[in-house]
Amino acid sequence: xxxxxxxxxxxxxxxxxxxxxxxxxxxxxxxxxxxxxxxxxxxxxxxxxxxxxxxxxxxxxxxxxxxxxxxxxxxxxxxxxxxxxxxxxxxxxxxxxxxxxxxxxxxxxxxxxxxxxxxxxxxxxxxxxxxxxxxxxxxxxxxxxxxxxxxxxxxxxxxxxxxxxxxxxxxxxxxxxxxxxxxxxxxxxxxxxxxxxxxxxxxxxxxxxxxxxxxxxxxxxxxxxxxxxxxxxxxxxxxxxxxxxxxxxxxxxxxxxxxxxxxxxxxxxxxxxxxxxxxxxxxxxxxxxxxxxxxxxxxxxxxxxxxxxxxxxxxxxxxxxxxxxxxxxxxxxxxxxxxxxxxxxxxxxxxxxxxxxxxxxxxxxxxxxxxxxxxxxxxxxxxxxxxxxxxxxxxxxxxxxxxxxxxxxxxxxxxxx
Length: 417
Ligand SMILES: *[C@@H]1O[C@H](CO)[C@@H](O)[C@H](O)[C@H]1NC(C)=O
Hints:
- It comes from Coccomyxa viridis.
- It is found in: Secreted.
- Residues 28-104 form the Purple acid phosphatase Fn3-like domain.
- Strands 10, 11, 14, 15 and 16 form a 5-stranded antiparallel sheet that branches. A 4-stranded antiparallel sheet has the order 4-3-6-7, with no helix packed on it. Strands 8-9-13-12 form a 4-stranded antiparallel sheet.
- By secondary structure, it is mostly beta strands.
- The chain folds into 2 domains: 6-118, Immunoglobulin-like (Sandwich); 130-364, Purple acid phosphatase-like, N-terminal (Immunoglobulin-like, Sandwich), CATH 2.60.40.380.
- The chain is built from 4 helices and 19 strands.
- The longest helix has 15 residues, at 300-314.
- It binds 2-acetamido-2-deoxy-beta-D-glucopyranose (NAG).
């Protein structure tokens, strides 16, 4: 049940959430929320989706997403219905009807004194493995599987060359990040709720040019993902041939036409406006590895949405990432701008969620650069968000790396940033 009092008791009020069959995709459940008997509807009333995470209330946590009630015909008569895509974000979710939300801002504008009604919770399976994604290490024949559950449990990834027959079980290492590790708002305030257990398991000794079938989950609970598959690249060699696609700044937006909280947007500027008509775009692309920036900006929910949306690609192809300003920049945390500029673009994340959620073969957790071989190519991935000037640790890494690369094996050297 919600942890705050409903501000006004309205006799005629009825707000019911009922889970429908899946109108969107297999990654999610659609939920239709309907309401009636709202006494004084305004053009800026909002239906918002919340998560029942520990230690959060409507006053301390931003909505997962929201929609203006006026998108439903008849809202001005006090009733309506809107369908949301509801992901498994480890805790039950529920809808809240707010009266007259005037703006998003750097503080939470969705407060309990504006709550008109609260729905029943929508149940989920807390330890269903979600957000699966693959990457390479810097060792040939290794692939890392990462995923998220609520509790640590007994996390494993299993792999084999025949569908349904797993000959290798790799125990996962698990991380999380507490609110106290976040360095500023909204990451340490209304953007934060329990991000869950972030698992990564390394599959080793994989043969080249081979299709593998795998799943990930909890061996004690016997709760696993569906089976996915990937094909390993050829061994690094001058004669090898690989295909890949690189992209940057992909971002994410929710797929159901609702809005996510963005503290940079004023309500009357963007499609979060009660008066606007623009629809947000749902982005996707195909890849063998990538450079990207999730538009997380300090909100746990945006990471959850990002990985669920990209799962069809990320579970098929190892993806190699670098951070951008929205993942990394926070004053006095080692970003390259400070003290010249005090950039707060990560919304207080300072790279910690990025590093734990996208485990790359970096020298240390906080050194977000690395290299690896892929077919005839030696890739060097460098971070523009950390110092790279002469003498810096990143510069030293690149110098050493260039001196040790064997051009007879990988005649191509490609540097990304
Ligand atoms: C390979 O990756 C590991 C982390 O997975 C790192 O500790 C090591 O320094 C990397 N090796 C090189 C040569 O970059």
